[in-house]
Amino acid sequence: MAEREQDTDLRSRLVDAGVELVDEQGVGALSLREIARRAGVSHGAPRRYFPTHLSLLSAIARRGFEGLAAQAGAAVATHEGEPREQLTALAHSWLDFALTNRGMFELMFRHDLLESNHLGLRETSLPLFATLVDLVARARPDSGAEPRIVAGALWANLHGIAQLWGWGSLQLAVGVDGPRPLLRAALDAHLGPEVR
Amino acid sequence: MAEREQDTDLRSRLVDAGVELVDEQGVGALSLREIARRAGVSHGAPRRYFPTHLSLLSAIARRGFEGLAAQAGAAVATHEGEPREQLTALAHSWLDFALTNRGMFELMFRHDLLESNHLGLRETSLPLFATLVDLVARARPDSGAEPRIVAGALWANLHGIAQLWGWGSLQLAVGVDGPRPLLRAALDAHLGPEVR
DNA sequence: AGACGTCCGTAGACACTGTCTACGATGCAT
DNA sequence: ATGCATCGTAGACAGTGTCTACGGACGTCT
Predict the structure, then answer these.
(1) Contact A36/A14 with Cβ under 8 angstroms?
(2) B89-141 pLDDT, tens per residue?
(3) Is the whole model's pTM more than 0.85, yes or no?
(4) What class has domain A56-191?
């Protein structure tokens, strides 16, 4: 009859509550006091573990980064040895994450709500970008372009599609039924047309 | 000795104050009361013209969209008849706007702060996208790809570069001195390598 | 066993926010 | 001059993040 997750430490309970909350009601619902209420404690309690509102939000966002990194890593692992396939799998995984966990994805890139130092950007985003560079280098070894540049542009493209599609700017203008054609166009553009 | 813009109507004075404010102090400073203070009126005054905080922010953002559209239009007009040049000019203009007016640019795409219907999205963003589609179609007439798709992907790419570069995620990972190489890579990718 | 000290959460205050409502003041039309 | 509509003021209300003082529970040492 013990109330759920009542006996674990408050620190992770708060983050759990925040993850649920952003999932159900979006970024706007992530007030410090609402998270505390959700966790069943008073509004001053979080201060013991998170000195500021932003630090709590950063911890919540970190969960998102970890989830995304795991999901993307799994997608890359399924097509070992085929860089091009790995890249498309990575891209699709990223987009799926953005469209499935909308609130969390928005939070993760609302850098005005995050402590850009403490957050899991260095620890999760950078290695992920490193593998992206590596995959790009192996997917098009003949090209003279610098892989870092291509990877950066591709990353921005991917992010832009996820973002713009997420809030409806693209389906209005482009008029397709899903973001997949855009993703394919971006991949073809940055990696060269697919060989088959 | 008349205080500057004291005699114009309050409606536009409020928007002016907001534009200045977001320029100087960023999106976070755009509270209703602070804008009212800046315009020299009480905190209840804006309600006469803007029923809600979001509607005022939307009016401010509209100024940004108008400015961006004007700037981009001018850039396109300088290279009439050369679609490829027009596209690169458009892209550079867009990026310049994003990096010069950082606060405004952030506001313009914070759709949680904007009334997505009333705002100048339909009136400014859509025609701009239409010219983008047109330019893409003329810049690569031989390609079999649908111009709308290519234009959508390119626009997402452009937006992604502006956004990611704006908050420093890219220069950290890619390690170049400016966003220009990324822009060039994106244009080359989506439009095919430049002929010279 | 008793006293002490540290940890952890509560509760209240403060300044600030957006929204709403009641109230004047101003100027124009009849 | 009288009425009226327009416009801005001022106060209240619920909500927010941060800060500080307080209480209670726990373990350790003498």
Answers:
(1) yes
(2) 999 999 999 999 999 999 999 999 998 766 556 677 788 899 999 999 999 98
(3) yes
(4) mainly alpha
CA–CA separation, B196 vs B124, rounded Å?
34
Residues of A with Cβ-Cβ distance to B168 under 8 angstroms: 116
A129: nearest CB among B106, B173, B186: B173
3-class DSSP state of A115: coil
Of B106, B145, B153, Cβ closest to residue A157: B153
Identify whether the C-beta of residue A99 lies closer than 8 Å to the C-beta of residue A71: no
The answer to whether the beta carbons of residues A157 and B156 sit under 8 Å apart is yes
CA–CA separation, B186 vs B139, rounded Å? 15
Superfamily of domain A1-51 in the CATH hierarchy: Homeodomain-like (1.10.10.60)
- For chain B, how many residues are written? 196
Same fold, A1-51 and A56-191: no
- CA distances to A36, A38, A39, A51, B11 from A48, rounded to whole Å, are 12, 17, 14, 7, 45
Closest CA to A101 of A32, A162, A33, A170: A162
